[in-house]
Amino acid sequence: MTAVLRWWTDMRSLSAVRLKFLKNHFGRPNGDKVTRWLLIGTLGTLFLIADYVFFYRMVAYLDGLPLQVGEELIVQLLNVVFLTLFAMLLFSTIIAALAIYYVSSDLEFLHSLPMIPSAIIHVRFVQTLINASWVMLVFSLPMFVAYGYYFQVTASYYFYLLMAFLPFVVLPCALGVLGIMVLMRYFPTDKAHQILSFLGLFFVAGLVAFLRFLSPEKFFDKKVSDEAIIGFVESLRVPEFPYLPSSWITRGLTAWTEGRLDISFARLGFLYAAAAGALVLFAWISRRIYLSGWRSYQEVKNAPRTKNKNNSNGKSLLAYLPIEPMKQALIAKDLKVFARDPSHWSQMFILLVLVIVYIFNIMNLPLDNLVLKNVVSVLNIGLIGFVLSALIARFVFSSVSIEGRKMWTLYTAPVDMRSFLVAKFWMYWPPLLLVAEILTVASNHLLQVDAYVMKMSVIGVLLITTGLVGMGLGMGAMYPRFDHENMSGISTGTGGILFMISSLAYVMLVLVLSARPMYVHFNEKFLFKFVGGIEVPVFYGLIVALTALVTVVPMRRGIRALRTMDI
User: 472 near 393, Cβ under 8 Å?
Assistant: First the structure.
C-alpha cells in the first residue's frame, strides 16, 4: 500500500509540473505564437472542411449504389481509414517515444529525483500518447462526423465513437513505446532517432503517393459512374481479419448505426481487453528494461568520437569550381552539416514524392483544348513558384539559424558575412533550380506547348528561383533563431511567415507582369492578331528588375544584420 501511495504521489507531482508548463505555454503567448496559431488555425479549419465534404460525398455515392453493394463498400472504406490510423499512430508513437523517453534534456534531472521510476515511465506514456495521437484524431474526426450526419444518427453514436477511440489509440501507443524500449535496451545506438525518423518520412511519403495515385478528385465530377466508384473502393481493399483492432472498431461503429447494439458492445469489449492487456504488458516489461536501456543510450551518446583515419588528402570537387577558397570552405562545411543531419536529407524522399505527384497531376488534367493547355502552362510557372517557396522556407530560410549557438565561431574566424551568405546561395541555388526546371520542362512537354512558351517558362523559373533563394537567405539572416530547439519551428516563426507572404506576393507579381506578353503571343499564334508593341519588352524588363530587387536587397540587409548582430 505504501508503494502504491508513493507511486500516486509521484504521478501527481510530475503531472502538475507538466500542466503548469502547458499553462505557461498557452496562457502567456507572445506575438510570434499568436501569429503562428492563427495561421495554423486557419489552414487547419480549411482542411477540416474539405475533409468533411470529401468524405460526406464519398459516403453519399456509395450508399446510392444498387444491390446493397454500397453498404459493404462503406464498411470497407471505414476499415481502411481505421487501419491507416492505427499504422500512423504506431509510427508516430515510435518517433515520439524515442524523444520523450531517451533524448529529452530533462531526463537526467528526473532520474536523479527520489521518485519511483514507474511513475516517470507512466507520466511519459501519457505525454507520448497525447503527442502522437491528437493531430490524427482531430483531422480524422470530420470523416466520422460526416458518416454520422449522413445516416442521421443520435448523440449516442458520438459517445460510442469516443469510448471506442480511447482503447483504439492506447493499443498502438503501448505497442510502440514498448517496441522502442526493447530496441534501446538490446540495440543501443546514437543513430536510432535518425533511422526511425527516416522510416517515418518514408512511410508518410509512400502514403501520400498512394492516396494521390487513387485520383480522389474524380468524385467531385457529377458524371462519375458507379463502376468507377466501386473500382476506387475495391482498390482500397485490405485484409479484414477478425482479430485486427481496426476491424473491431469498424464493425462496432457500423453496427451501432444499424441498431445492433450487442455486436457494438462485443467489439468494444474486445478493444478494451486488448488495450488493458497491452498496458499490463507494457507496465511489466518497461519497469525491467527502461532504465537499463536509458543508461546504455547515454553511454553511447556521450562516448568519445573516434577520428576517421581514412581521410583523403586529395582535392574535392569544389576545388575545381571558379569559387574563392573561403566560399569553398563554407560550402564544404554546409554540405557536411546537411549530410550529417538526417532531418534535412531524409526529407528528399518527401521532395521526390512531391515531384512525382506534381507530374502525375499534370498528366491527369482534363485538358483537351490546345489554347487551354498553353494557358495552364503559364499558370504552371506560378504553381512551381509556390512549391519553391515552401521548399525554400524549409531549407534556405532556416540555413542561417541552423548554425545555432556555434555561430560565434564564424565571427571569431576570418570569415566575412558577405562570403558566408553568398556561399550558402551557391549551395542551395543549383539543386533548387534543377528541381524547378525538371518540373517545368516535364509539365510543359506533357502539355504540348510551343517553343516560345517553353523558352519563356524556363527563363521565368530561372528568375523566380534566383529571387526566392536570395529573398530566403536575406530574410533568414534578418530574422535568425539561433536558440531553436526544433528545426521545423524556424520557418514557422514571425520571420518565416513574413518570408512566405513576401515570396507568394513576388510570384504573383511575376505572373501578373507576364500576363500581357503571353496574351500578345496567344493572339498571334491562335487568332493571328498582332496586338503587341513596345510594352512586351518593357514587361519582361520589369520582371528582371523585380527579380534583381528581391534578390539583392534582402541579401544586403541580411549581411548588414549579421555584421551588426550581437551574438
Answer: yes
